[in-house]
Amino acid sequence: MPPPRHGGQGNVRQLDDTGGPQAWFESLPVITRYWFGGALAVTVMCNFGFLPIMKMLWMWDKVWDNFEIWRFLTPFLFVGKFDFNTLMALYMLQSYSNRYEMEPYNTGGGGGTADYAFALMFGAISIMVTYPIMGMLLPAPPVFARTLMMFVLYVWSKRHPTAPTSIWGVQFQAIYLPFAQIGLSIAMGGAFSDLVHGLACGHLFYFLVDVVPIVYGKDLLHTPQFLIDQIGIGAYVPPANNTAAGNNVWTPPGRVNPPSDSAGPSRGHSWGSGGQRLGSS
User: Fold this and answer.
1) Are 242 and 250 in contact (CB under 8 A)?
2) Tens of pLDDT, residues 190-222
């Protein structure tokens, strides 16, 4: 599946512009960096036989009976066997995770990293809980990396519905991208049930975080306080060791400059990356 192209500030920077692969990797937002790095490492090790693939799959009975709690994480890291679709899935994972992490829906963390972490937690839990139901409708393998990737892609497309994007030179708005990806996967004979699953879970998140506050005036989803305490408000800034005073003084995490999106749940739809939410003053 060919990678879609995007215009504007969301373009992925080329390696030549960032000083090489290491500098490019370190320039990724913190959650995207760990997710993409973990997915790449687990996928490579599984394909070369260093990790057993069966240990990476989601199997609730193994978690319950054998306490194999790593299965809560590994299904979201193993992308699949080495082929063109796996390479494209890895590309889309880092691309859309990067874009959405830069400006997620504000559910209490100022539209920053804590809100993205909460969105991924919501997506992962909803995917695991609804997997048995999805399996009865459209059988899907018990690996969720592409599913969570589509969850992020769909939510990003709702967050920035008018952002320009294209596939194979065909221009359209971001709101149509998830459906174009699924349609293209079907046309190329690839798997699509996991993508449909991710889209459904992404729509649930979008409905609760954006539609319900507008239509019903209720904020149902809130970033947990422990995430805000650990990550801070706005984009995550790693603690820095300040030795100027002669002792260790740690800078608390959080955005250096105040976030443009105030710390509090969003109450309107963001039409594009530069517009204002409906209902805001």
Assistant:
1) yes
2) 789 999 999 999 999 999 999 999 999 999 999
